[in-house]
Design goal:
With about 475 residues, this protein is α+β, with helices and mostly antiparallel strands. Among the domains are: about 120 residues, Uridine Diphospho-n-acetylenolpyruvylglucosamine Reductase, domain 3, CATH 3.30.465; about 120 residues, 2-Layer Sandwich (Alpha-Beta Plaits); about 80 residues, Alpha-Beta Plaits (2-Layer Sandwich). About 35% of the residues lie in helices and about 20% in strands. It has 16 helices and 18 strands. Strands 5-6-10-8-9 form a 5-stranded antiparallel beta sheet. Strands 1-2-4-3 form a 4-stranded mixed beta sheet, sandwiched between helices. The structure holds flavin-adenine dinucleotide (FAD). Flavin-adenine dinucleotide binds next to strand 3, helix 5 and strand 10.
Length: about 475
């Protein structure tokens, strides 16, 4: 994805004195310096980016975080915050010449409070997303953030990337369900914004500065998150459709037919699915004879325990759509494990993509009704660069968010592919600009899209972001060189 060389970030090396002070503060469990202990924290999930660090700090409390940030700030040493290290844009991976610290939040995994009556949970930022989903479920509630990395990613990382996932069209992205945060600022001060308030118009809503900031403005240590009634009646369908236009129309009608209960609508493409079935054990094609290039995974949910009512309503809707030619074939999950199997296929796309030869993926968004036209226009623009390239768009269609995947022409080597990548990126992103879209719908910028953001972002927005960064982090020590160069 890089089309502009990454900047070399000059960082002050952590001195032996600083490391000794950090060790005194954090103890043996809280500071890793042996190369073999640090290795997992220095390489990204995809195994594509590797950096360096003088130490990996593993604080166990907000006071630990504040103390270590104060020590680093006094020494002018840079910090890379890290959650579960599942981010796909390199935001949590230190640069190759990083001589400072990685701060891994995994030990800050305590549940502070659950308030089922008030529909909130207060947690430390290193809690694993799946643990929090299970916690909410044990209180008959739903934490509606679900994504393929949920077994490893942390709520702090989710907040810092404003993660999206598969239910945004109904519940919103992470930003929309955070009520309060506690943050350690680059100075080491603690901002206690840990309030469970739905209404608080006391000036700037500071929490939104830190959500989606990818660790560049401070370290999120705690959060109050909203939870919802747990769905009791869920219908999940695997739907074969003619084309993306049919998907848009079907979704538009489904909102009404379900009485606004569509909680997910994921577009899938036969090229990607073939990779999943080939590489991910235990995945079985729900509609193997499906004659189409495109499929939808659609879910309707209700908190009312009317067993089967949702599925019956969905069946009626899909049957009608089939009669009108909008749907070619469909299967509704008969039980929870079948629904899980459908979701496993969808969530395995990223994993399968790692094994499937040269290719690239763009995490983009456009207005959802314009997705079909965008797919056509952007595919044509990319084919003008490389005629035999294989577009395989898929993703969170209900949010207008595509993971616009391209596989290299069959037989093309990695080396040959690399020569086309920059021109392919330009073709996709120029088209996005023309459509008023976004070059990063949910994965963020990190180090991977730095050049593209600089190329396409509104200059006033960039200047404002830089002003905020300089005001909060005048030494540029908090994840320097991520999102933008200061
Ligand atoms: C298989 C797979 C599927 C995925 N699917 C989706 C998806 O559907 N939707 C989606 O949005 N993303 C998805 N992702 C991307 C990734 O899981 C999310 O970005 C996730 O939110 C990252 O959380 P993390 O804890 O792993 O953060 P990390 O990767 O550790 O960090 C991400 C960024 O946040 C910063 N950060 C982390 N913790 C903190 C903190 N406590 N305070 C301040 N900054 C912090 C880091 O510096 C970095 O910039 C997927 C990833 C994988 C591997």
């Amino acid at each position: 994805m890089n089309v502009v060389a990454l900047p070399q970030i000059p960082t002050t090396p952590a001195s032996p004195e600083l490391l000794a002070a950090l060790h005194a503060l954090l103890g043996d469990k809280g500071l890793l310096t042996a190369p073999e202990d640090m290795r997992p924290f220095l390489t990204d999930w995809r195994g594509q980016l590797t950096g360096t660090a003088a130490a990996v700090a593993r604080p166990a409390s907000t006071e630990d975080v504040a103390g270590l940030v104060r020590l680093c700030a006094a020494a002018g040493v840079a910090i890379v915050p890290q959650g579960g290290n599942t981010g796909l844009m390199g935001g949590a991976t230190p640069y190759a010449h990083h001589a400072g610290i990685v701060v891994s939040m995994g030990r800050m995994n305590r549940i502070i409070a659950v308030d089922p009556m008030g529909y909130t949970m207060t947690v430390e930022s290193g809690c694993i997303l799946q643990t929090l989903q299970e916690l909410a479920s044990s209180h008959d509630r739903l934490l509606p953030l679900s994504l393929g990395a949920q077994g490893s990613c942390t709520i702090g990382g989710n907040l810092s990337t404003n993660a999206g996932g598969a239910q945004v069209l109904h519940y919103g992205n992470t930003r929309s369900f955070v009520l309060g945060v506690e943050v350690v600022l680059p100075s080491g001060e603690i901002w206690d914004g840990l309030k469970a308030l739905k209404k608080d118009n006391t000036g700037y809503d500071l929490k939104h500065l830190f959500i989606g900031a990818e660790g560049t403005l401070g370290i999120i240590t705690k959060a109050v998150i909203k939870i919802w009634p747990k769905p009791k009646d869920v219908a999940t369908a695997w739907i074969c459709i003619t084309d993306p236009q049919a998907a848009v129309q079907l979704l538009s009608e489904a909102h009404i037919a379900s009485e606004n209960a569509v909680t997910s609508c994921e577009l899938m493409n036969r090229t990607n699915l073939a990779g999943v079935f080939r590489h991910v054990p235990g995945t079985i094609d729900p509609l193997p004879t499906g004659p189409s290039e495109y499929y939808l995974l659609m879910e309707w949910s209700s908190a009312l325990p009317k067993d089967g009512a949702m599925a019956a309503r969905m069946e009626e809707f899909l049957a009608d759509a089939m009669e009108r030619g909008l749907v070619l074939d469909a299967v509704i999950a008969q039980n929870v494990s079948q629904a899980r199997a459908f979701w496993h296929i969808r969530e395995s796309h990223a994993e399968a993509g790692r094994h499937d030869g040269p290719g690239t993926s763009y995490d983009i968004s456009v207005a959802s009704s314009r997705i079909p036209a965008f797919i056509d226009d952007a595919s044509a623009a990319v084919r003008a660069v490389l005629p035999d390239i294989r577009p395989a768009p898929m993703g969170h269609m209900g949010d207008g968010n595509l993971h616009f995947n391209f596989k290299a022409p069959i037989g093309m080597t990695n080396e040959a592919w690399r020569q086309y990548k920059q021109a392919v990126t330009r073709a996709v992103n120029d088209m996005l600009r023309d459509y008023g879209g976004s070059i990063s719908a949910e994965h963020g910028i990190g180090s991977e899209k730095l050049g593209e953001l600089a190329h396409y972002a509104d200059p006033v927005k960039m200047a404002t972001m830089r002003a905020i960064k300089r005001a909060l982090d005048p030494q540029n020590l908090m994840n320097p060189g991520k999102i933008f160069e200061v």
